[in-house]
Write a structure and sequence with these properties.
Length: about 290
């Protein structure tokens, strides 16, 4: 059960604001110790190796297991970081002692982020208890995300032999896709969307400088409609979700993501119509209950 939080501060206000944007972007602000919650500091104590062995025993390929564990365990943390960075210029300070994730079966759906809130000097909440004022939010995001993810991705690599380049590449793709989603949600025009995309690549330059692991970067993908233009992306690293049992189309064919590098440009353009035509229903994430990325 969560600890009883009786006060509302900038962290709680930020979590509520992100939750209002979409439930998948919110996070718990009090420590969680109930069933299914796993502190990030304890994920490398044998749990990841055990989960990987269980998933492999189900007949899943090691590469898909590695990609699935990485995206699942980091996703609930990266989503509020990306959306908070773009929409609020605020990010939770994530460290292994202050992060936990909730895993239900094979799905990790929520994070508890109980550290301080990093924000810029001109933020109205600057100086309030529970905040850390930083001059460079890009550098803060890069350093915190790298330090948090490195032990986990190393452990997943050891357990599955899935390549570190692919693990880090997948993380960068997710950070970029959710940042773009936030900018589209805000109503940014194409030049502003490109600026957000470039800013996130600047963040990833800093991540790469820390890890020393170059990755295949996502590529911006412009989309045009009768009256609107927008921007999506093509992932640099396939997430391999199309290999997960049950993730197939009605005809039994693989269900590729809209941003998957394996699909054709024409198919991607058709499936990204929802970005410029509100009535289109081609979102790759509709079947997952997720916002369109």
């Amino acid at each position: 059960m969560p600890d009883d939080a009786t006060t509302t501060g900038p962290r709680e206000e930020t979590a509520a604001a992100l939750q209002a944007v979409h439930t998948r972007f919110g996070f718990e602000t009090a420590p969680q110790t109930g069933t299914g919650w796993h502190p990030f500091a304890e994920l490398t104590d044998g749990r990841v190796a055990r989960w990987a062995a269980e998933m492999t025993a189900e007949g899943r390929a090691p590469a898909e297991v590695g990609a699935s564990l990485a995206s699942g365990l980091t996703g609930p943390v990266v989503r509020p970081l990306a959306v908070g960075f773009v929409l609020l210029a605020r990010i939770p300070v994530v460290t292994t002692p202050t992060v936990a994730v909730r895993r239900r079966g094979r799905v990790t759906d929520r994070a508890a982020l109980t550290g301080a809130l990093a924000l810029l000097p001109d933020d109205p909440a600057a100086g309030r208890p529970g905040t850390v004022v930083v001059e460079d939010l890009r550098g803060e995001l890069a350093s915190r995300l790298t330090a948090l993810a490195a032990p986990l991705l190393d452990e997943i690599h050891r357990a599955t032999r899935y390549g570190l380049r692919n693990l880090w590449g997948g993380l960068g793709d997710v950070l970029s896709s959710h940042s773009l989603w936030a900018a589209r949600h805000r109503g940014d025009d194409p030049p502003a969307l490109h600026a957000v995309f470039d800013t996130v690549q600047d963040v990833w330059d800093l991540v790469t400088a820390r890890t020393g692991i170059p990755v295949d970067r996502p590529v911006p993908f412009p989309v045009a409609g009768p009256a609107r233009r927008s921007l999506g992306q093509v992932r640099g690293t396939c997430c391999l979700h199309y290999r997960i049992p049950g993730r197939t189309a009605a005809d039994g064919s693989p269900r590729y993501c809209t941003s998957c590098p394996l699909i054709s440009t024409d198919e991607r353009r058709t499936r990204m119509r929802h970005l410029v035509e509100p009535t289109a229903t081609t979102s790759r994430t509709a079947h997952l209950g997720m916002p369109s990325l």
